[in-house]
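4.2 Preliminary Data

To establish feasibility before requesting continued support, the project team ran the inverse folding procedure on a target of 128 residues. The structure was first converted into the token representation described in Section 3, and no sequence information of any kind was made available to the design step. The complete token record follows.
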């Protein structure tokens, strides 16, 4: 990952990255990255294995462009449950135990799907 200026917290460390900083986070390590300043931050992230994470990002950024996310870039609870259930191998929120997240997502995602939420929307798809 290369960042101009951002802060990062892992389960074992916290630091502020400066322009040009490159770092790796070991697989299975909880981590959070956020903008630690007032200026927009552009990052380059390589995920390996990436699985279907690009589909998740397509959906999240599409929802954000339509104003359907909160200040943290997260959609409402039912949409989030559908995403968390569909992309459970690709991501988890660092703030909650993974088992709890998966249980909550599995229990609430069917309700979200019945309400019309999807894990992927064709209108957001980016051709590769």
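Position-by-position output of the design step:
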């Amino acid at each position: 990952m290369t960042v101009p200026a951002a802060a990062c917290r892992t389960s074992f460390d916290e630091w502020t990255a400066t322009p040009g900083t490159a770092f790796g986070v070991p697989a299975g390590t909880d981590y959070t990255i956020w903008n630690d300043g007032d200026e927009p931050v552009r990052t380059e992230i390589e995920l390996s294995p990436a699985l279907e994470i690009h589909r998740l990002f397509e959906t999240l950024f599409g929802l954000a462009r339509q104003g359907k996310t909160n200040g943290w870039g997260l959609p409402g609870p039912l949409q989030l449950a559908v995403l968390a259930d569909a992309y459970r191998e690709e991501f988890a929120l660092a703030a909650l135990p993974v088992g709890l997240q998966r249980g909550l997502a599995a229990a609430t995602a069917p309700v979200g799907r019945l309400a019309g939420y999807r894990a992927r929307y064709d209108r957001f798809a980016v051709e590769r």
